[in-house]
Each structure stands twice: as structure tokens, then as C-alpha cells.
């Protein structure tokens, strides 16, 4: 069973979080809402996220500082961050957002369909990345099995070429064990 993608919603205003949750309804993503940068960093210690929707202006730790911490952590540095803010008066804020690692910076009011589309893309990328990792694990497992089979065939061949009269039985045993995946 595959894990559902999660979106971390970070805003100090509960009504904004509720609006974001409503916008994301119906998408294949579980919204996890927190009301501070500190809470976001704690949540990132226990969960993996496909995308983070982050309010730029919050008391205590603002979104820029929060993003800086997120991007410094090995585990979270690749999680895409979309900044959301009501302040569009200063183009420097958007630049600052991109400098701390944001993939996008939207000013309110924003088109909810645009936000849904952006989140959908990151959720799809997250799912595809998980699928590729699972396939890579499977390939490594099969490669290991192939090496074990090859080693067993090589050992059986060496036994059969030798002068030992019991070698045939041992070679057959090796090949049967390799075929059924039992240890030699």
C-alpha cells in the first residue's frame, strides 16, 4: 500500500489554514495544518511532505526563517516550498523567498485553481519519486538474486569439472538451493 502524499500548511491565522484546506479538498493529498514556523519544523521531524505552503509573514519565526531551517536539513531540503503572503507591496519579499529556497511565491488574493494546479504537480512528482525508489529497491533485490544464482552456477560448474566423485550430488544440491532461494 502506498502512502498518501501530504501537504504542510503553515499560517499563523486559523482562517487562512481552513481556506487552504478547503482549496486542497478533493486532491490526492492529506493537508496537515500548523500555526507557526516552530510547529512546522517539529512536524517535519515526524512526517514526509510533498509540498509546503508557507505564510511569509508570521510572528516569532517568519516564513523566511522557517524556510531557511527547512532547507538546511538534509531530510527536508528537497521539499518544495510555495510562499503565500498578503504583502505584495515589496518585490524584495518575493526575491527573499526565492533566495531561501522557495519554488514559488504567491500573493493574496491568489486564484485557488492555480494553487491547486501547483500542488497537484508537486504531489505527482512526490508519488513518482516514491514509485521510482520502490522500483530501484526491486531492481537491487533482483540483482542480488541474480548474483547469488550466478555464483551457485559457477560453483556447481567448478564442482562438475573436478575429480571428486561426490561433486555431482553437491552440484545438484547447490543448483536446487539457488533455484528455490534457500541458503547454501
How is this structure best described in words?
With 184 residues, the protein is an alpha/beta fold. The protein is 57% helix and 14% strand. The protein is built from 6 helices and 5 strands. Strands 2-1-3-4-5 form a 5-stranded parallel sheet, with helices on both faces. α2 packs parallel to α3.
Could you list some keywords that capture this structure?
alpha/beta; 5-stranded parallel sheet; 14% strand
Mean pLDDT: 88
Helix content: 55-70%
The helix-strand sequence is: EHEHEHEHEHH
Radius of gyration: 26 Å
> What structural class results from the helix and strand content?
alpha/beta
Beta content:
5-15%
Shape: rod-shaped
Distance between the termini: 33 Å
The largest sheet is: 5 strands, parallel
Strand order of the largest sheet: 2-1-3-4-5
Question: Unreliable runs, pLDDT <50, ≥5 residues?
Answer: none
How many β-strand runs?
Answer: 5
* Number of H/I helices: 6
Topology record:
Layout (H helix, E strand, L loop, with lengths): L4 E6 L3 H11 L4 E6 L2 H10 L4 E5 L7 H10 L8 E5 L5 H9 L4 E4 L4 H50 L5 H14 L4
Parallel strand pairs: 1-2, 1-3, 3-4, 4-5
Helix pairs in contact: 2-3, 5-6
Amino acid at each position: 500500500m502506498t502512502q498518501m502524499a501530504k501537504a504542510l500548511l503553515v499560517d499563523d491565522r486559523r482562517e487562512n489554514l481552513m481556506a487552504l484546506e478547503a482549496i486542497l479538498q478533493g486532491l490526492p493529498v492529506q493537508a496537515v495544518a500548523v500555526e507557526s514556523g516552530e510547529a512546522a519544523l517539529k512536524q517535519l521531524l515526524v512526517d514526509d511532505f510533498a509540498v509546503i505552503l508557507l505564510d511569509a509573514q508570521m510572528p516569532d519565526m517568519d516564513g523566511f526563517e522557517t524556510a531557511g531551517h527547512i532547507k538546511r536539513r538534509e531530510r527536508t531540503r528537497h521539499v518544495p516550498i510555495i510562499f503565500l503572503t498578503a504583502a505584495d507591496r515589496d518585490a524584495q519579499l518575493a526575491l527573499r523567498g526565492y533566495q531561501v529556497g522557495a519554488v514559488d511565491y504567491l500573493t493574496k488574493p491568489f486564484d485557488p485553481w492555480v494553487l491547486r494546479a501547483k500542488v497537484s504537480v508537486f504531489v505527482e512528482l512526490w508519488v513518482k519519486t516514491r514509485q521510482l525508489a520502490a522500483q530501484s529497491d526491486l531492481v537491487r533485490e533482483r540483482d542480488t538474486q541474480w548474483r547469488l544464482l550466478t555464483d551457485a552456477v559457477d560453483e556447481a560448474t567448478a564442482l562438475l569439472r573436478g575429480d571428486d566423485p561426490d561433486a555431482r550430488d553437491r552440484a545438484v544440491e547447490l543448483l536446487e538451493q539457488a533455484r528455490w532461494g534457500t541458503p547454501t
